[in-house]
Design a protein that fits this description.
The complex is a heterodimer of chains A (about 325) and B (about 260). With about 325 residues, chain A is mainly α. Chain A contains 16 helices and no strands. Chain A has two domains: about 30 residues; about 220 residues, MetI-like fold. In chain A, helix 7 packs across helix 14, helix 14 runs antiparallel to helix 16 and helix 15 runs antiparallel to helix 16. Helix content of chain B is about 30%, strand content about 20%. A six-stranded mixed sheet of chain B has the order 5-6-7-3-8-9, sandwiched between helices. A three-stranded antiparallel sheet of chain B has the order 2-1-4, with helices on one face. The longest helix of chain B has 14 residues. Chain B is globular and about 50 Å long. Classes of the chains: A mainly alpha (about 325), B alpha/beta (about 260). Chains A and B meet through helix 1, helix 12 and helix 13 of A and helix 1 and strand 5 of B.
Chain lengths: ~325, ~260
């Protein structure tokens, strides 16, 4: 349990008369890099360029990338056919509003927005406790654990690793898969979508929040703990206040992602506009499909705009 | 009765070639005010953090009132550069000092909604920064910040008040003001200040401890500290520590120090 020595006193450094300010190239630097056989910078970047080229080539081969197929007459005809079938898009009141409003396309848009908002709120609610339990400076390292018994710190470490594992799992499973799972649990509809987005994003946000907590300066936390504050008080008043609006900004960015994700959750029956995308594709109703795609486009652009505005006001 | 006791205390950091504090024995009585002087990298900050319990010694014992595992509320430390919460108000930062005397639950709210900030406000007034009570700390000058850090420690009302370079990078008037603020709290309480400016130390404190290379080089009243003592303090550090940090600290001012006769 050792903290690094504190920074040297600046007063002496700045006032010291014998410090030269001229910058001469340090001959030892080149020597050491040559000794290590790394070569000159241009040689090194050439090596990296070759390595990168190989990686891209292998990836293209595995992914069966074949640009010729894309520009072949057949492909062009198919795409043209799709566009021709989709024009003009279906803006009929029957399609947009449905018979009872709740079965129209516009309602599906509202539902998509609602799923994304509720999903992110759920995600934040889950992410906060998980982040606190997943940050090592809260559970077992840093100023709050000086002189703490080895067993207590081991238990804290275990809790932290376990929480980090849970967070990894939550975000490793794609939201679409979570959606599929929750549809079987709570039935078709937007609630399954809310749960899916909430759980997946809890994993994403929880990791980010925990990383931010761990990145805070230990000095204020030490100062707060040293006053006799409890660990929980130290977390609240020594660590958390150091978090910056960047965190809120990132959460808003995740909401943007959530709106994009919410547009396809309907593929597995978890509500939102995705239902219209998948139904119109399978029924070959291209005019309706194009309308839905336009709606998704407007939705995503609007979300980007709103989120950017909010973030600008924050930072 | 000794208030603070260091008994053969040694503390090393991982990867360091020599201990930051090597076999130090030192006692401070209630009501004493002590200045610790010495070059950068001498281990002075380590000494203070050992006293607060933020660091544990590798060997030896640190005691407060004879207790080797004292309550954290017994010591208050003014951190170098403040260690303040930048995005919180001055008052909120200061009230943090009272957390040790709050209940667990109340302490969670106190810095945000102080129930009885009277004492904190009083001390802020005495420090001349009461007008900034609601200002965010990151909007203050370095002198004002140092005063906030001092008030946070003072509000703790602990018996041992420690301060780590509270006057670093400050002009003489502000330095004076900060030292006055800290020593005004003395009665049966003790004050230990790590300080760079030897003149300021000699002027303000009744006991001067010269510290370098992790050990106590001298420990005497200011009237008996000679220029040679100070010279040796910085020279020894240059030879024993051999670190660039220590050598840079060497050409420090020594005017005002009594001549050696």
């Amino acid at each position: 349990m050792t903290a690094p020595p504190r920074s040297p006193d600046r007063s002496t450094e700045t006032r010291s008369p014998d410090r030269g300010v001229t910058c001469r190239p340090d001959p030892t630097i080149r020597e050491s890099s040559e000794e290590l056989g790394r070569g000159t910078p241009s040689k090194r970047s050439l090596t990296w360029l070759i390595v990168l080229g190989i990686i891209v080539g292998v990836a293209a081969w595995v992914a069966e990338v074949d640009p010729i197929t894309l520009v072949s007459t057949d492909a062009r005809q198919q795409m043209w056919q799709f566009v021709a079938d989709g024009v003009p898009p279906d803006f009929s009141a029957e399609y947009l509003l449905g018979r009872t409003v709740r079965d129209g396309l516009l309602w599906a848009i509202v539902e998509t927005i609602a799923i994304s908002i509720a999903g992110i709120v759920l995600a934040v609610g889950l992410a906060i406790p998980l982040a606190v339990a997943g940050a090592s400076n809260v559970t077992h390292t840093g100023p709050m654990y000086t002189g703490t018994s080895g067993f207590r710190r081991y238990a804290g470490h275990l809790l932290q690793r376990l929480t980090r594992g849970i967070l990894s799992f939550l975000r490793a499973v794609p939201d679409l898969v979570w959606g599929f799972l929750f549809v079987t649990a709570v039935g078709l509809g937007p609630f399954a979508g809310v749960l899916a987005l909430g759980i997946h994003n809890a994993g994403v946000l929880g990791k980010i929040y925990a990383d931010f907590l761990e990145d805070t300066d230990p000095a204020p936390a030490e100062a707060v703990y040293a006053t006799g504050a409890t660990r929980l008080q130290t977390v609240f008043h020594g660590i958390v206040p150091q978090l910056t609006p960047t965190l809120v900004s990132y959460t808003l960015y995740r909401w943007e992602c959530a709106i994009r994700a919410a547009t396809i959750l309907g593929f597995v029956g978890a509500g939102g506009i995705g239902y219209y995308l998948t139904v119109t594709i399978t029924r070959l109703q291209y005019q309706k499909l194009v309308t839905a795609i336009i709606a998704v486009f407007v939705l995503v652009v609007a979300a980007d705009y709103i989120s950017a505005r909010l973030r600008r006001n924050l930072v | 009765m000794t208030l603070l006791g260091f008994h053969d205390v040694t503390k090393s950091y991982d990867g360091a070639t020599r201990p930051a504090v090597a076999d130090v024995s030192l006692t401070v009585d209630p009501g004493e005010d002590v200045a610790i002087v010495g070059p950068s990298g001498a281990g002075k900050t380590t000494l203070l953090r050992l006293a607060t319990g933020a660091l544990r010694p590798d060997s030896g014992r640190v005691t407060i009132d004879g207790d080797p595992d004292p309550d954290r509320t017994q010591t208050a430390l003014v951190y170098q550069e403040g260690a303040l919460l930048e995005r919180r108000s001055v008052l909120s930062n200061v009230v943090v000092g009272t957390l040790g005397s709050q209940s667990r639950l109340r302490g969670l709210l106190e810095p945000l909604y102080p129930r009885d900030p009277e004492r904190a406000i009083q001390l802020l007034e005495r420090a001349g920064i009461a007008e900034y009570a609601d200002t965010r700390v990151d909007q203050l000058s370095s002198g004002e910040r140092q005063r906030v850090a001092c008030v946070r420690a003072l509000v703790q009302e602990s018996r041992l008040l420690l301060a780590d370079e509270p006057t670093a990078n400050l002009d003489p008037t502000t330095s004076q003001r900060i030292l006055d603020l800290l020593s005004a709290a003395l009665d049966d309480r003790s004050l230990i200040v790590v300080i760079h400016d030897i003149d300021l130390a000699l002027e303000h404190f009744e006991r001067i401890v010269g510290f370098s290379g992790g050990t106590v080089r001298f420990d005497k009243p200011p009237s008996r500290v000679s220029a040679a003592d100070v010279d040796r303090l910085f020279d020894e550090s240059a030879t024993t520590a051999g670190s660039t940090r220590a050598t840079r600290a060497q050409p420090r001012s020594k005017p005002g120090v009594q001549s050696d006769q």
